[in-house]
Amino acid sequence: MIRHLKLVLVISTSICLLVQSKTVNKDRNTPRPFPKGFLFGTSTASYQTEGGWNLDGKSENIWDHLTHTNPCSVKDCSNGDIANDSYHLYKRDVEMMRELGLHFYRFSLSWTRILSSSFPNKINDAGVQYYNNLIDEMLKYNIEPMVTLYHWDLPQQLQLLGGWTNPHVVDWFADYARVAFELFGDRVKYWVTVNEPRQICYQGYGAATMAPLIAIPGIAEYMCAKNLLVAHAKAYHIYDKEFRDKGAGVIGISISADWIEPETPKDTQAAFEALQFEWGQYAHPIFSEAGDFPPVMKERIAAKSAEQGFPRSRLPEFSKKEIEMLRGSSDFFGLNHYSTNILYKNASTQGIFEKPSFYDDIGAATYQRPEWPTSASFWLKSVPWGFYKLLRFISDEYNNPPVIITENGWSTLTGIEDDGRVAYYRDYLDAMLDAIEDGCEVIAYTAWSLMDNFEWMQGYTERFGLYEVDYNSPQRTRTPRKSAFVYKQIIRTNQLDYDYVPDTNEMTIDEGH
Ligand SMILES: *[C@@H]1O[C@H](CO)[C@@H](O)[C@H](O)[C@H]1NC(C)=O
Ligand SMILES: CC(=O)N[C@H]1CO[C@H](CO)[C@@H](O)[C@@H]1O
User: Of 188, 252, 405, 477, which residue is 20 to 30 A from 148 by alpha carbon distance?
Assistant: First the structure.
């Protein structure tokens, strides 16, 4: 798979032409090819799959702490203590990757499995061994590891010190990143620094809907955002200067971005502004020409802070040096995308939100259309044209960066006849191909998820896997769903065929992979 790496590094020269949105009337009877060399993978995260929460020297992280001290803050009062036991069953996981014919597999490292004290004074060999085993098993079969350094499981010790709101987190994260690059950088060519800053900062520190369940709205999420971005940039530059092996490896950030569609043309400006708040706050400092937080955020939050009696803006400022450090600090735009919202702003959206808060700062409201196909997650409806518009927006707004779709997927309840998931993947890949045809530089696609896993506050109630996991069996038996067969066919043929009906009797490993 090394041959594909060059693709990522080529500075994009194609121009994403501004044309009107595609009509949805397309001929779906002819299979549609993906670009030559296009990469397909699947994704998981450490806390959601590994289990082994306290084995072999691993110490407590914020999700261990939350689920042990406040178990029923999670919908089914479950936790990731065992999850699907990938800590023991990694060989079966790699077998599934081979069955699907994946080019790469994205997983995350557990900080406290590698550094029990949170700091690099002592490295936990057993934890390192687990990741070496997994990586080596994948490489044996030509499956490239894509490693996320941070997928939400901060050491609990660091949380006691304020976690992402403490500016020292920049050094803590950079030290941990350097250890990971030293340990695995010889074999790992794809790195993701941080997964989904919005969920970490807004949900973790502003809205209290994710660990560490802190609700200091309108303040803490912005402190987190600044520190997280600087930490990301510092890790990027460490890799760039000390580890990038003759240009072979790439490193970037994964940003979660929904599309925001204005309800009427008069909401267009408001939708643009909301998008700058929702995820532009993380993308603009890195991918825009000017750098820094989006101007609309700086102005709006400064003005509101003054009105509200704060002596300075609730949005911390970057120094000149930090702005420079952040600009361009990602080799690709890692995009996690799931759904779309409709936005409106009028008299009824003013003054309805808690003050101060992120949504009061935005000052608009969103909803989803009831007729859109619905998953098992309340926030996730299928709106493929939103994916197309989002990819076009990223291309136009940030000078057509190489994009890796680092997550995209659909939830169901249990059951292996997952036609809703099959439809979602086909429609979203079709929309992605529309964007690629327009010149958007999308180079890889990652399905979330390889298998069912611990879905954070939803526990095991919402299933995202191509493979179903039986949490009642000691072996955590994994069974391919219909979508696994469809995804396998897409990868094998490198084309999207709406007419393909899989024979779901037997999943095999194809020769030559
Ligand atoms: C604002 O827009 C929403 C959504 O279209 C509508 O339901 C509501 O009546 C409007 N309110 C005002 C005061 O215009
Ligand atoms: C292989 C292995 O370690 N399996 C474990 C999976 O989880 C069950 C349920 O807790 C354990 O009993 C098994 O030992």
Answer: 477
